[in-house]
Amino acid sequence: MDRKAYIIDVINHGSSRLHFKKNEIMEGGYVSKEDAPKVACYVLHLAKKECAYPHEAEALFSSNCAGCHGNDGKGAGGVYPDLTRERLLGFDQE
Ligand code: HEC
Q1: Counted domains in the chain
Q2: CA 15 to centroid of ligand 1, rounded, Å
Q3: Domain ranges, residue 38
Q4: What is the pTM of this model?
Q5: Which of helix, strand or coil describes residue 24?
Q6: Where are the beta strands (DSSP E) in the chain?
Q7: What confidence tier does 93 reach under pLDDT thresholds 50, 70, 90?
Q8: Does the residue 15 lie in any domain?
Q9: Ligand 1 center to residue 73 CA distance, Å?
């Protein structure tokens, strides 16, 4: 699984294994399965990684994800996981 596939998986199925905050999990399905790859690409872009995302992905992120992760993906000052870090918590890149 690459970083994009991991992000898509979290969007579709949620995440409860990081124990980021006690008793707080992320539900799956904030966006549709069709939109998940577009939003994942936008998340990669926020982390300064190449990924061509359609224009609508930015709006999808800001209305469905930014409430917790922040418009810049940095997790609202540590309240939620920073999606732009080099190593995501649930996906250790080499
Ligand atoms: C209600 C708040 C909330 C919303 C909305 C939300 N998330 Fe999350 N997200 C979390 C929490 C909390 C975690 C950590 C869950 C855990 O501990 O396993 C998380 C984890 C993640 C992770 C894993 C981070 C890592 O370091 O491994 C990704 C990727 C992610 N979210 C992306 C998204 C995307 C994309 C959206 C919009 C489609 C979104 N999130 C919407 C709260 C939220």
Answers
A1: 1
A2: 7
A3: 3-78
A4: 0.96
A5: strand
A6: none
A7: low
A8: yes
A9: 10
